[in-house]
């Protein structure tokens, strides 16, 4: 069976959509003839990749790629714009279309902008219509969390939940003996994982995380250092804040995580999909601090056992109190790794995904 995996995302950046698409591609190409269709200026390290130059003409640029290949199945990774092209061409070529949904974007917009302008309301209405049209007309829908499934199931009954997953063999549990680069043994390194250049419309979504640290830096215990990991165009000069820049090698990134004492994700708004940066940290047995909004869509994670939760006004105190409790941090880290292995690993989800794909081999 010949399968296309499509994502309206840049292959050169590791945002949630591109990471998920590449992991699905890596998993499926072990069994099927797969092609990854993604935006970017260079092919990168993968074979069988169709890279389309960034452009507003994404839908039209997809047409020759589809026409020159005889795909049996098109797997759309949250590419709602591309869906219209795939949907139309699938009718001509009699291939099937699976739509993978990473969140409920119309709800996310409504949460972020509760009092939109008239133009904003029109845009939200268009986003809502686009989502529902795609869900209704897809041959199958894969949701990354129970909340996504519950919201869309009434529009398409052929839906499955396949959680966001990480490669547990790359993101390994950290060793007990850690050699941190720090001034003394008492210092702790807390990571903030980017990229911090993302936009939701004209809104800098990820900068919430940085603002939280920048505005509260003097309230944190002076023994705590912060390491900003990934692309970042929003920096300040401070002796306790450092920046790694973009880390291109996945193993180097995983190694960077294992040298952290904790990761901080001070989310203001729910994403309706389990964040990859949280799962990767948990897989490395690194305790994660987040807000209740950051816990949304983590269906198998228990506060105070797998992850540490605090309301935004209390989060600084929560970190100051918990970070130096070695027994607590070790217990949460071990539990987090165990939860990832059971629910959010490649091993736990690969068979589920293959079963969905095999349904369409029988149909055809």
Overview of the molecule:
The protein is α/β, with parallel strands linked by helices. It folds into two domains: 2-165 and 346-363, Glycogen Phosphorylase B (Rossmann fold, 3-Layer(aba) Sandwich), CATH 3.40.50.2000; 188-344, Rossmann fold (3-Layer(aba) Sandwich). 40% of the residues lie in helices and 18% in strands. The protein has twelve helices and 13 strands. Residues 177-184 have low confidence and may be disordered.
Strand order of the largest sheet: 3-2-1-4-5-6-7
Q: Would you tell me which CATH topology of the largest domain applies?
A: Rossmann fold
The largest sheet, given as strand count, sense and whether it forms a barrel, is:
7 strands, parallel
What is the N-to-C order of secondary-structure elements (H for helix, E for strand)? EHEEHEHEHHEHEEHEEHEHEEHHH
Number of domains: 2
CATH class of the largest domain: Alpha Beta
Helix content estimate: 40-55%
In percent, how much strand structure appears in the residues? 15-25%
- How many separate helices? 12
What name goes with the CATH superfamily of the largest domain? Answer: Glycogen Phosphorylase B
Instruction: Report the structural category.
Output: alpha/beta
Number of strands: 13
> Per the principal axes of the C-alpha atoms, what is the gross shape?
globular
First and last CA, distance: 10 Å
């Amino acid at each position: 069976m010949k399968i296309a995996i499509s994502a309206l995302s840049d292959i050169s950046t590791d945002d949630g959509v591109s990471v998920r698409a590449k992991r699905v591609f890596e998993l499926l190409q072990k069994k099927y003839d797969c092609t990854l269709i993604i935006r970017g200026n260079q092919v990168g390290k993968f074979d069988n990749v169709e890279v389309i130059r960034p452009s507003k003409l994404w839908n039209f640029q997809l047409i020759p790629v589809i026409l020159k290949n005889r795909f049996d199945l098109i797997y759309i990774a949250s590419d709602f714009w591309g869906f219209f092209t795939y949907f139309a061409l699938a009718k001509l070529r009699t291939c099937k279309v699976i739509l993978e949904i990473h969140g409920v974007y119309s709800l996310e917009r409504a949460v972020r902008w509760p009092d939109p302008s008239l133009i904003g309301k029109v845009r939200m209405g268009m986003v809502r219509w686009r989502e529902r049209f795609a869900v209704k007309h897809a041959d199958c829908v894969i949701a990354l969390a129970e909340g996504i499934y519950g919201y869309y199931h009434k529009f398409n009954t052929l839906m499955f939940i396949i959680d966001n997953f990480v490669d547990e063999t790359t993101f390994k549990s950290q060793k007990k003996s850690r050699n941190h680069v720090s001034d003394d043994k008492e210092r702790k390194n807390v990571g903030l994982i980017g990229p911090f250049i993302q936009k939701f419309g004209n809104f800098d979504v990820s900068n919430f995380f940085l603002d939280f640290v920048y505005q509260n830096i003097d309230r944190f215990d002076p023994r705590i250092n912060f390491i900003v990991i990934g692309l970042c165009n929003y920096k300040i000069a401070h002796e306790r804040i450092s920046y790694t820049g973009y880390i291109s090698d996945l193993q180097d990134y995983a190694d960077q995580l294992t040298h952290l004492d904790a990761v901080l994700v001070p989310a203001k708004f729910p994403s309706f999909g389990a964040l990859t940066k949280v799962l990767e940290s948990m897989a490395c047995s690194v305790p994660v601090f987040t807000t209740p909004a950051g816990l949304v869509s983590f269906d198998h994670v228990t506060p105070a056992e797998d992850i540490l939760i605090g309301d935004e006004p209390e989060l600084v105190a929560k970190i100051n109190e918990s970070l130096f409790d070695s027994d607590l941090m070790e217990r949460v880290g071990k539990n987090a790794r165990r939860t990832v292995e059971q629910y959010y690993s490649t091993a736990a989800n690969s068979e589920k995904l293959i079963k969905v794909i095999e349904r369409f081999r029988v149909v055809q």
